[in-house]
Amino acid sequence: NGPAQLQIAEEMAQVASSSEEGAIWAEQDRATALMFAGRVGEAIASARRAWTQARQRMLPMLTLTAGSSLASKLIDIAHFDEADEVISECLELERRVAGSGERFAMAKVGNWSIHDLRHQIWLSRGDWRDAIASLEREVIRQSQPHFRMHLHWHISVWLARCADSGRSVEVERHAEASRQDGVAADCRRCSRELALKTAESFARLGRLEEAEKELQAWDENGRPGAMNDMLWRRHVAALIAVARGDPAGIAEIEAVLAERDRLGLAGALLWTRLDLAGALIGSDKRRAAEEFRKAGDEAAAARAATEQHLAELGLRRLGVHTWRRGQARAGENAMDRLSEREREIATLIGAGHSNPEIAGRLFLSRKTVERHVSNILARTGARNRTELARLLNVQETRPTSR
Question: Relative to the CA of 326, which of 81, 133, 299, 380 has its CA 20 to 30 Å away?
Answer without folding.
Answer: 133
